[in-house]
Amino acid sequence: MGSNATSGLKLAAGIFLTLALITTVVIIFISSQDAAKEGQTQFSSIQTQLSQTRFNIYENTTLSGSQVMNAVRQYSGEEQFGVYVQTGKGGTTYYGSQFNQTTGVITGESKNANLVPAMNEADNNFINPSGKFKSSIVRDANNMVRGIVFTQSK
């Protein structure tokens, strides 16, 4: 009879330890799942910030016309993005998508990829490589950069 009591205690101890182990694993799994969600949220935030840092050089700076032309070439083909250039001759052109300069909302369906006027000295939209342009970026309601504005200084 002593042997049955010992076997019963061993069985009860085994069941108790198994339940304790399962409970511990479940608690660790839940807490690690919350930590993983938090990490994913932070990673997403960092990724958004990094993707937007490429536009920091255009935030309220003065650039040469050749730098403006490089920006036009680089960004005019991107989706949901545009570059607005106002030249000293009074020419104004959107390259890529048209956007509202106040709200950042993309307003045009078509995209302008024609760079010929920007390189033709006789055209009002000529981007003088040695000219100086003030630049600024335009963000939408979600704080995403939707466009760059270049205005030639006189």
Textual characterization of the structure:
The structure is a single chain. This protein is α+β, with helices and mostly antiparallel strands. 44% of the residues lie in helices and 19% in strands. The chain has three helices and five strands, in the order αβαββαββ. It has helices at residues 2-53, 65-75, 116-119, and strands at 61-64, 82-86, 92-96, 132-139, 145-152. Strand 4 (132-139) and strand 5 form a beta hairpin. The longest helix has 52 residues, at 2-53.
What is this entry, summarized?
This protein has 154 residues and is an alpha+beta fold.
Overall geometry: rod-shaped
Largest sheet: 5 strands, mixed
How many helices? The count is 3
State the distance separating the first and last CA atoms.
105 Å
Q: For the largest beta sheet, what order do the strands appear in spatially?
A: 1-4-5-2-3
- Runs in which pLDDT lies below 50 for 5 or more consecutive residues are none
Return the average pLDDT rounded to an integer.
Answer: 88
Structural class: alpha+beta
Topology as a string of helices (H) and strands (E): HEHEEHEE
Task: Tally the beta strands.
Answer: 5
Write down the Rg. 30 Å
Q: What percentage of amino acids are in beta strands?
A: 15-25%
Query: Level of helix content?
Result: 40-55%
